[in-house]
Amino acid sequence: MDGQSERTIQTLEDMLRTCVLDFGGNWDFHLPLIEFSYNNSYHSSIGCAPFEALYGRKCRSPICWTEIGDNQITGPELIQETTDKIAQIQRRLQATRSRQKSYADKRRKPLEFQVGDRVMLKVSPWKGVVRFGKKGKLAPRYVGPFEIIERIGPMAYRLRLPDELSGVHDVFHDRIHNIEDGAADIHRY
Fold first, then answer.
1. Domain map of the chain by residue range?
2. What is the pLDDT of residues 72-113, one digit of tens each?
3. Which positions fall inside the Tf2-1-like SH3-like domain (predicted)?
4. What predicted TM-score, i.e. pTM, was given to this entire model?
């Protein structure tokens, strides 16, 4: 299973847990509401809700969540209850996202370097491209070490690159790492 699937499952579990705690009952009873809420919530990775990405339009609000034959709530009361539940789920989902982001931000520390430090440069493996004598996944993930010759901004640095890399822009902000980070997977200059 990949990270995206794990993240989706974690989100759905959080939503189910919230529904069961707030509304009671079995989790499977809330599944249609959870599915609707998830598919119509904004996803930053795609810039819209999954429903909107799939169908090219926003979803119309549901009219009936109950099974055919259930006459517990009808008409405007049903619509109001459903709308309230969706709004509550979306508020809880946003609170969960904010909480998880704050946890991640507490553990995340940006790397800072000084002029004169030697760093590794992370390179992305490209399918079918031969880099440093290796192809694809076998190519080294890090090259270097390179000396930092100038700090451009809070997280941007100019590196002294060898002549072989003269076609590569020499300012980096997100691809430099401590030498130890890539020790086992390095193409040395």
1. 3-107, 118-188
2. 556 787 778 778 877 877 787 788 888 888 887 777 776 788
3. 116-173
4. 0.40
